[in-house]
Amino acid sequence: MKKNKLTLFILLAMALGIGVGYLVHINASPDFIASFSNSIKLLSKIFIRLVQMIIAPLVFSTLVVGIAKLGDLKAVGRVGGKAILWFITASLISLLIGMLLVNTFEPGKTIDLSQADMSGLKDLQGKTTEFSLEKFVEHIIPRSLIEAMATNEILQIVIFSILFGVAAAAMGDYSKPVVKALDVASHIILKMVNYVMNFAPLGVFGAIAAVVATKGLGIFKFYLVYFAYFLLGIAILWVVLIAVGYLILRHRTPELLKRIGNPLLIAFSTTSSEAVFPKLKEELERFGCKDRIVSFILPLGYSFNLDGSMMYMTFASLAIAQAYGVHLDLGTQLTMLLVLMLTSKGIAGVPRASLVVVLATCAMFKIPEAGVALILPIDHFCDMFRSMTNVLGNALATSVVSKWEGELQEGSEPAVEQL
Question: What residue ranges define each of the domains in the chain, with the CATH number in brackets?
Fold first, then answer.
Protein backbone atom coordinates (compact mmCIF):
# COMPACT_ATOMS: atom_id res chain seq x y z
CA MET A 1 0.00 0.00 0.00
CA LYS A 2 2.82 2.39 0.90
CA LYS A 3 4.57 1.63 -2.40
CA ASN A 4 1.36 2.30 -4.35
CA LYS A 5 0.90 5.63 -2.54
CA LEU A 6 4.44 6.68 -3.42
CA THR A 7 3.85 5.81 -7.08
CA LEU A 8 0.60 7.81 -7.07
CA PHE A 9 2.30 10.81 -5.47
CA ILE A 10 5.10 10.67 -8.06
CA LEU A 11 2.60 10.57 -10.94
CA LEU A 12 0.70 13.49 -9.43
CA ALA A 13 3.97 15.38 -8.98
CA MET A 14 4.84 14.82 -12.65
CA ALA A 15 1.45 16.12 -13.81
CA LEU A 16 1.62 19.10 -11.43
CA GLY A 17 5.18 19.87 -12.54
CA ILE A 18 4.14 19.93 -16.21
CA GLY A 19 1.14 22.15 -15.43
CA VAL A 20 3.02 24.64 -13.25
CA GLY A 21 6.01 24.73 -15.57
CA TYR A 22 3.86 25.37 -18.62
CA LEU A 23 1.89 28.16 -16.89
CA VAL A 24 5.15 29.87 -15.94
CA HIS A 25 6.52 29.40 -19.47
CA ILE A 26 3.58 31.09 -21.21
CA ASN A 27 2.85 33.84 -18.68
CA ALA A 28 6.12 34.91 -17.08
CA SER A 29 8.97 37.12 -18.29
CA PRO A 30 12.30 35.54 -19.33
CA ASP A 31 13.99 36.80 -16.15
CA PHE A 32 11.30 35.32 -13.94
CA ILE A 33 11.41 32.02 -15.84
CA ALA A 34 15.17 31.77 -15.31
CA SER A 35 14.81 32.59 -11.62
CA PHE A 36 11.88 30.19 -11.19
CA SER A 37 13.71 27.37 -12.98
CA ASN A 38 16.85 27.75 -10.87
CA SER A 39 14.83 27.90 -7.64
CA ILE A 40 12.40 25.03 -8.30
CA LYS A 41 15.25 22.86 -9.59
CA LEU A 42 16.63 22.88 -6.03
CA LEU A 43 13.91 20.38 -5.04
CA SER A 44 15.29 17.90 -7.57
CA LYS A 45 18.86 18.63 -6.53
CA ILE A 46 18.03 18.05 -2.85
CA PHE A 47 16.47 14.66 -3.59
CA ILE A 48 19.31 13.48 -5.82
CA ARG A 49 21.96 14.64 -3.35
CA LEU A 50 20.15 12.84 -0.51
CA VAL A 51 20.42 9.64 -2.53
CA GLN A 52 23.98 10.32 -3.67
CA MET A 53 25.18 10.70 -0.08
CA ILE A 54 24.33 7.05 0.63
CA ILE A 55 25.40 5.51 -2.70
CA ALA A 56 29.12 5.18 -1.94
CA PRO A 57 28.81 3.55 1.52
CA LEU A 58 26.00 1.32 0.24
CA VAL A 59 27.99 0.12 -2.79
CA PHE A 60 31.06 -0.56 -0.64
CA SER A 61 29.24 -2.39 2.14
CA THR A 62 26.91 -4.44 -0.06
CA LEU A 63 29.59 -5.45 -2.58
CA VAL A 64 32.06 -6.54 0.12
CA VAL A 65 29.35 -8.50 1.95
CA GLY A 66 28.12 -10.00 -1.31
CA ILE A 67 31.57 -11.30 -2.24
CA ALA A 68 32.22 -12.56 1.30
CA LYS A 69 28.89 -14.42 1.37
CA LEU A 70 29.67 -16.11 -1.94
CA GLY A 71 32.17 -17.98 0.18
CA ASP A 72 35.03 -18.97 -2.12
CA LEU A 73 36.93 -17.24 -4.87
CA LYS A 74 35.73 -19.73 -7.46
CA ALA A 75 32.15 -18.65 -6.79
CA VAL A 76 33.16 -15.00 -7.10
CA GLY A 77 34.82 -15.69 -10.44
CA ARG A 78 31.89 -17.77 -11.68
CA VAL A 79 29.22 -15.24 -10.78
CA GLY A 80 31.34 -12.33 -11.96
CA GLY A 81 32.05 -14.07 -15.26
CA LYS A 82 28.35 -14.66 -15.92
CA ALA A 83 27.58 -11.04 -15.08
CA ILE A 84 30.29 -9.68 -17.38
CA LEU A 85 29.04 -11.95 -20.19
CA TRP A 86 25.57 -10.43 -19.85
CA PHE A 87 26.95 -6.88 -19.55
CA ILE A 88 29.13 -7.08 -22.67
CA THR A 89 26.39 -8.72 -24.75
CA ALA A 90 23.76 -6.19 -23.66
CA SER A 91 26.14 -3.27 -24.28
CA LEU A 92 26.97 -4.44 -27.80
CA ILE A 93 23.27 -4.93 -28.61
CA SER A 94 22.47 -1.44 -27.29
CA LEU A 95 25.26 0.19 -29.29
CA LEU A 96 24.34 -1.66 -32.48
CA ILE A 97 20.66 -0.71 -32.18
CA GLY A 98 21.65 2.95 -31.94
CA MET A 99 23.98 2.66 -34.94
CA LEU A 100 21.44 0.84 -37.12
CA LEU A 101 18.67 3.33 -36.33
CA VAL A 102 20.75 6.38 -37.20
CA ASN A 103 22.02 4.86 -40.44
CA THR A 104 18.54 3.73 -41.47
CA PHE A 105 16.45 6.80 -40.66
CA GLU A 106 19.11 9.56 -40.57
CA PRO A 107 17.45 11.65 -37.83
CA GLY A 108 20.44 13.98 -37.61
CA LYS A 109 19.51 15.57 -40.95
CA THR A 110 16.24 16.83 -39.42
CA ILE A 111 17.86 18.70 -36.51
CA ASP A 112 17.41 22.48 -36.66
CA LEU A 113 20.91 23.97 -36.32
CA SER A 114 19.42 27.21 -34.95
CA GLN A 115 18.21 25.47 -31.79
CA ALA A 116 21.68 24.81 -30.36
CA ASP A 117 22.02 25.41 -26.61
CA MET A 118 25.48 26.96 -26.47
CA SER A 119 25.27 27.88 -22.78
CA GLY A 120 24.68 24.24 -21.87
CA LEU A 121 27.60 23.20 -24.07
CA LYS A 122 29.98 25.45 -22.11
CA ASP A 123 28.97 23.69 -18.90
CA LEU A 124 29.75 20.28 -20.41
CA GLN A 125 33.08 21.26 -22.00
CA GLY A 126 34.64 21.80 -18.61
CA LYS A 127 33.91 18.21 -17.62
CA THR A 128 35.52 16.30 -20.46
CA THR A 129 38.90 15.59 -22.00
CA GLU A 130 39.88 13.67 -25.09
CA PHE A 131 40.07 9.91 -24.62
CA SER A 132 43.48 8.42 -23.83
CA LEU A 133 44.73 5.22 -22.25
CA GLU A 134 46.20 7.18 -19.35
CA LYS A 135 42.91 8.93 -18.60
CA PHE A 136 41.04 5.64 -18.89
CA VAL A 137 43.33 3.94 -16.35
CA GLU A 138 43.05 6.91 -14.00
CA HIS A 139 39.27 6.70 -14.29
CA ILE A 140 39.28 3.03 -13.28
CA ILE A 141 41.98 2.76 -10.59
CA PRO A 142 41.27 4.80 -7.44
CA ARG A 143 44.05 6.94 -6.02
CA SER A 144 42.20 6.94 -2.71
CA LEU A 145 39.02 5.25 -1.54
CA ILE A 146 38.10 8.40 0.37
CA GLU A 147 38.52 10.53 -2.75
CA ALA A 148 36.49 8.06 -4.82
CA MET A 149 33.69 8.12 -2.25
CA ALA A 150 33.79 11.90 -1.98
CA THR A 151 33.32 12.26 -5.75
CA ASN A 152 30.97 9.26 -6.10
CA GLU A 153 33.26 7.53 -8.62
CA ILE A 154 31.28 4.30 -8.61
CA LEU A 155 33.66 2.31 -10.81
CA GLN A 156 36.63 3.15 -8.57
CA ILE A 157 34.62 2.20 -5.48
CA VAL A 158 33.68 -1.08 -7.17
CA ILE A 159 37.35 -1.89 -7.89
CA PHE A 160 38.38 -1.28 -4.26
CA SER A 161 35.35 -3.15 -2.91
CA ILE A 162 36.05 -6.21 -5.06
CA LEU A 163 39.65 -6.39 -3.84
CA PHE A 164 38.52 -5.86 -0.23
CA GLY A 165 35.79 -8.48 -0.54
CA VAL A 166 38.07 -11.05 -2.16
CA ALA A 167 40.66 -10.52 0.60
CA ALA A 168 37.94 -10.88 3.26
CA ALA A 169 36.67 -14.09 1.66
CA ALA A 170 40.21 -15.50 1.51
CA MET A 171 40.70 -14.89 5.25
CA GLY A 172 37.63 -16.94 6.17
CA ASP A 173 36.39 -16.82 9.77
CA TYR A 174 38.99 -14.23 10.80
CA SER A 175 37.23 -11.54 8.72
CA LYS A 176 33.68 -12.40 9.82
CA PRO A 177 33.38 -9.59 12.42
CA VAL A 178 34.22 -6.96 9.77
CA VAL A 179 31.87 -8.52 7.23
CA LYS A 180 29.13 -8.74 9.86
CA ALA A 181 29.59 -5.05 10.72
CA LEU A 182 29.38 -4.07 7.04
CA ASP A 183 26.27 -6.25 6.66
CA VAL A 184 24.57 -4.40 9.51
CA ALA A 185 25.73 -1.07 8.08
CA SER A 186 24.20 -1.89 4.68
CA HIS A 187 20.82 -2.61 6.27
CA ILE A 188 20.97 0.63 8.27
CA ILE A 189 21.63 2.51 5.02
CA LEU A 190 18.71 0.72 3.34
CA LYS A 191 16.53 1.90 6.22
CA MET A 192 17.69 5.43 5.42
CA VAL A 193 16.50 4.83 1.87
CA ASN A 194 12.91 4.53 3.08
CA TYR A 195 13.20 7.99 4.60
CA VAL A 196 14.86 9.50 1.52
CA MET A 197 12.23 8.08 -0.86
CA ASN A 198 9.58 10.19 0.86
CA PHE A 199 11.20 13.19 -0.85
CA ALA A 200 10.89 11.63 -4.33
CA PRO A 201 7.64 13.40 -5.33
CA LEU A 202 9.15 16.79 -4.45
CA GLY A 203 12.26 15.97 -6.49
CA VAL A 204 10.12 14.88 -9.44
CA PHE A 205 8.02 18.04 -9.29
CA GLY A 206 11.11 20.27 -9.22
CA ALA A 207 12.82 18.52 -12.15
CA ILE A 208 9.77 18.52 -14.43
CA ALA A 209 8.61 22.05 -13.59
CA ALA A 210 12.07 23.52 -14.21
CA VAL A 211 12.58 22.03 -17.66
CA VAL A 212 9.02 22.74 -18.89
CA ALA A 213 9.17 26.32 -17.61
CA THR A 214 12.42 26.90 -19.49
CA LYS A 215 11.79 24.97 -22.71
CA GLY A 216 8.01 24.74 -22.88
CA LEU A 217 6.14 21.97 -24.66
CA GLY A 218 6.97 23.39 -28.08
CA ILE A 219 10.44 21.84 -27.95
CA PHE A 220 9.01 18.74 -29.60
CA LYS A 221 8.15 20.75 -32.71
CA PHE A 222 11.84 21.05 -33.57
CA TYR A 223 12.95 17.61 -32.47
CA LEU A 224 9.95 15.42 -33.19
CA VAL A 225 11.74 13.13 -35.66
CA TYR A 226 14.92 12.86 -33.57
CA PHE A 227 12.94 12.09 -30.43
CA ALA A 228 10.59 9.67 -32.19
CA TYR A 229 13.43 7.57 -33.57
CA PHE A 230 15.18 7.62 -30.21
CA LEU A 231 11.99 6.29 -28.59
CA LEU A 232 11.82 3.65 -31.32
CA GLY A 233 15.35 2.59 -30.38
CA ILE A 234 14.43 2.45 -26.68
CA ALA A 235 11.32 0.40 -27.51
CA ILE A 236 13.37 -2.07 -29.59
CA LEU A 237 15.94 -2.34 -26.80
CA TRP A 238 13.20 -3.01 -24.23
CA VAL A 239 11.68 -5.72 -26.43
CA VAL A 240 15.07 -7.40 -26.88
CA LEU A 241 16.01 -7.21 -23.19
CA ILE A 242 12.63 -8.41 -21.93
CA ALA A 243 12.50 -11.18 -24.56
CA VAL A 244 15.92 -12.50 -23.56
CA GLY A 245 14.95 -12.15 -19.91
CA TYR A 246 11.74 -14.10 -20.56
CA LEU A 247 13.70 -16.96 -22.16
CA ILE A 248 15.52 -17.37 -18.85
CA LEU A 249 13.07 -16.15 -16.19
CA ARG A 250 9.91 -17.45 -17.93
CA HIS A 251 6.72 -16.79 -15.92
CA ARG A 252 8.61 -14.70 -13.35
CA THR A 253 9.26 -11.90 -15.88
CA PRO A 254 5.91 -10.06 -15.40
CA GLU A 255 6.40 -10.23 -11.63
CA LEU A 256 9.87 -8.68 -11.98
CA LEU A 257 8.53 -5.84 -14.13
CA LYS A 258 5.81 -5.19 -11.55
CA ARG A 259 8.34 -5.18 -8.71
CA ILE A 260 10.60 -2.62 -10.37
CA GLY A 261 7.74 -0.36 -11.49
CA ASN A 262 8.39 2.15 -8.73
CA PRO A 263 12.17 2.41 -9.34
CA LEU A 264 11.50 2.74 -13.07
CA LEU A 265 9.12 5.62 -12.46
CA ILE A 266 11.53 7.45 -10.16
CA ALA A 267 14.40 7.02 -12.65
CA PHE A 268 12.13 8.28 -15.45
CA SER A 269 10.98 11.38 -13.61
CA THR A 270 14.29 12.38 -11.99
CA THR A 271 16.49 11.36 -14.98
CA SER A 272 18.81 9.57 -12.56
CA SER A 273 19.23 5.79 -12.52
CA GLU A 274 21.62 6.27 -9.59
CA ALA A 275 18.78 7.74 -7.54
CA VAL A 276 16.98 4.38 -7.42
CA PHE A 277 19.96 2.14 -6.67
CA PRO A 278 18.99 1.52 -3.02
CA LYS A 279 15.30 1.01 -3.81
CA LEU A 280 16.10 -1.30 -6.72
CA LYS A 281 18.26 -3.47 -4.47
CA GLU A 282 15.40 -3.79 -2.02
CA GLU A 283 12.86 -4.71 -4.73
CA LEU A 284 15.15 -7.33 -6.30
CA GLU A 285 15.51 -9.01 -2.92
CA ARG A 286 11.73 -8.97 -2.55
CA PHE A 287 11.52 -10.54 -6.01
CA GLY A 288 13.54 -13.49 -4.72
CA CYS A 289 17.17 -12.74 -5.59
CA LYS A 290 19.55 -13.62 -2.75
CA ASP A 291 21.12 -10.54 -1.21
CA ARG A 292 24.64 -11.86 -1.78
CA ILE A 293 23.97 -11.99 -5.53
CA VAL A 294 22.23 -8.61 -5.62
CA SER A 295 24.98 -7.01 -3.55
CA PHE A 296 27.60 -8.29 -5.98
CA ILE A 297 25.91 -7.84 -9.38
CA LEU A 298 23.99 -4.57 -8.97
CA PRO A 299 27.00 -2.32 -8.18
CA LEU A 300 28.86 -3.89 -11.10
CA GLY A 301 25.87 -3.22 -13.33
CA TYR A 302 25.86 0.47 -12.46
CA SER A 303 29.40 0.69 -13.83
CA PHE A 304 29.28 -1.78 -16.73
CA ASN A 305 25.63 -2.18 -17.77
CA LEU A 306 23.98 1.13 -18.58
CA ASP A 307 22.07 -0.10 -21.64
CA GLY A 308 19.93 2.98 -22.23
CA SER A 309 22.93 5.32 -22.02
CA MET A 310 24.96 3.09 -24.35
CA MET A 311 22.27 3.13 -27.04
CA TYR A 312 21.83 6.89 -26.73
CA MET A 313 25.55 7.67 -26.95
CA THR A 314 25.83 5.93 -30.33
CA PHE A 315 22.55 7.44 -31.51
CA ALA A 316 23.52 10.98 -30.46
CA SER A 317 27.13 10.88 -31.73
CA LEU A 318 26.14 9.68 -35.21
CA ALA A 319 23.13 12.02 -35.38
CA ILE A 320 25.41 15.01 -34.68
CA ALA A 321 27.74 13.85 -37.46
CA GLN A 322 24.76 13.69 -39.82
CA ALA A 323 23.57 17.15 -38.78
CA TYR A 324 26.94 18.61 -39.84
CA GLY A 325 27.30 16.41 -42.93
CA VAL A 326 30.30 14.51 -41.53
CA HIS A 327 30.55 11.15 -43.32
CA LEU A 328 31.67 8.20 -41.20
CA ASP A 329 32.27 4.90 -42.97
CA LEU A 330 31.28 1.58 -41.44
CA GLY A 331 34.77 0.88 -40.11
CA THR A 332 34.91 4.24 -38.36
CA GLN A 333 31.48 3.71 -36.85
CA LEU A 334 32.47 0.29 -35.52
CA THR A 335 35.62 1.83 -34.06
CA MET A 336 33.42 4.46 -32.39
CA LEU A 337 31.34 1.66 -30.85
CA LEU A 338 34.45 0.08 -29.34
CA VAL A 339 35.60 3.46 -27.97
CA LEU A 340 32.18 4.00 -26.40
CA MET A 341 32.38 0.51 -24.86
CA LEU A 342 35.49 1.68 -23.01
CA THR A 343 34.79 5.33 -22.26
CA SER A 344 31.25 4.70 -21.02
CA LYS A 345 32.22 2.30 -18.23
CA GLY A 346 31.69 3.88 -14.87
CA ILE A 347 29.85 6.97 -16.07
CA ALA A 348 27.67 8.30 -13.31
CA GLY A 349 23.98 7.49 -13.47
CA VAL A 350 23.09 11.15 -13.08
CA PRO A 351 21.63 13.70 -15.50
CA ARG A 352 23.75 14.58 -18.57
CA ALA A 353 26.56 12.14 -17.74
CA SER A 354 26.07 10.48 -21.14
CA LEU A 355 26.57 13.81 -22.91
CA VAL A 356 30.02 14.15 -21.38
CA VAL A 357 31.02 10.89 -23.09
CA VAL A 358 29.36 12.01 -26.35
CA LEU A 359 31.35 15.24 -26.23
CA ALA A 360 34.63 13.34 -25.75
CA THR A 361 33.74 10.95 -28.58
CA CYS A 362 32.96 13.80 -30.97
CA ALA A 363 36.34 15.36 -30.21
CA MET A 364 38.12 12.09 -30.94
CA PHE A 365 36.39 11.51 -34.29
CA LYS A 366 36.66 15.13 -35.50
CA ILE A 367 32.91 15.76 -35.25
CA PRO A 368 32.14 19.40 -34.35
CA GLU A 369 31.82 19.50 -30.56
CA ALA A 370 29.33 22.33 -30.87
CA GLY A 371 26.98 19.69 -32.25
CA VAL A 372 26.32 18.53 -28.72
CA ALA A 373 24.55 21.84 -28.20
CA LEU A 374 22.06 20.74 -30.86
CA ILE A 375 20.70 17.93 -28.71
CA LEU A 376 20.88 19.71 -25.35
CA PRO A 377 17.39 21.28 -25.56
CA ILE A 378 15.72 17.87 -25.80
CA ASP A 379 18.27 15.88 -23.79
CA HIS A 380 16.24 16.02 -20.58
CA PHE A 381 13.37 14.16 -22.23
CA CYS A 382 15.73 11.59 -23.77
CA ASP A 383 17.43 11.19 -20.39
CA MET A 384 14.12 10.16 -18.83
CA PHE A 385 13.87 7.12 -21.07
CA ARG A 386 17.53 6.12 -21.05
CA SER A 387 17.66 6.31 -17.22
CA MET A 388 14.61 4.08 -16.99
CA THR A 389 16.21 1.64 -19.46
CA ASN A 390 19.39 1.51 -17.35
CA VAL A 391 17.29 0.38 -14.39
CA LEU A 392 15.52 -2.28 -16.45
CA GLY A 393 18.81 -3.64 -17.78
CA ASN A 394 20.38 -3.95 -14.34
CA ALA A 395 17.26 -5.54 -12.85
CA LEU A 396 17.22 -8.16 -15.62
CA ALA A 397 20.96 -8.78 -15.34
CA THR A 398 20.76 -9.38 -11.59
CA SER A 399 17.70 -11.63 -11.89
CA VAL A 400 19.14 -13.65 -14.77
CA VAL A 401 22.45 -14.27 -13.01
CA SER A 402 20.51 -15.26 -9.89
CA LYS A 403 18.56 -17.77 -11.98
CA TRP A 404 21.74 -19.13 -13.58
CA GLU A 405 23.18 -19.62 -10.10
CA GLY A 406 20.03 -21.38 -8.86
CA GLU A 407 19.59 -18.60 -6.29
CA LEU A 408 16.24 -17.20 -7.48
CA GLN A 409 13.46 -17.91 -4.99
CA GLU A 410 9.80 -16.99 -4.81
CA GLY A 411 9.23 -13.37 -3.87
CA SER A 412 9.40 -12.39 -0.24
CA GLU A 413 10.34 -9.57 2.09
CA PRO A 414 14.13 -9.08 2.29
CA ALA A 415 15.72 -10.48 5.39
CA VAL A 416 19.13 -10.16 7.00
CA GLU A 417 21.12 -13.32 6.19
CA GLN A 418 23.22 -14.76 8.94
CA LEU A 419 26.89 -15.34 8.20
Answer: 2-404 (1.10.3860.10)
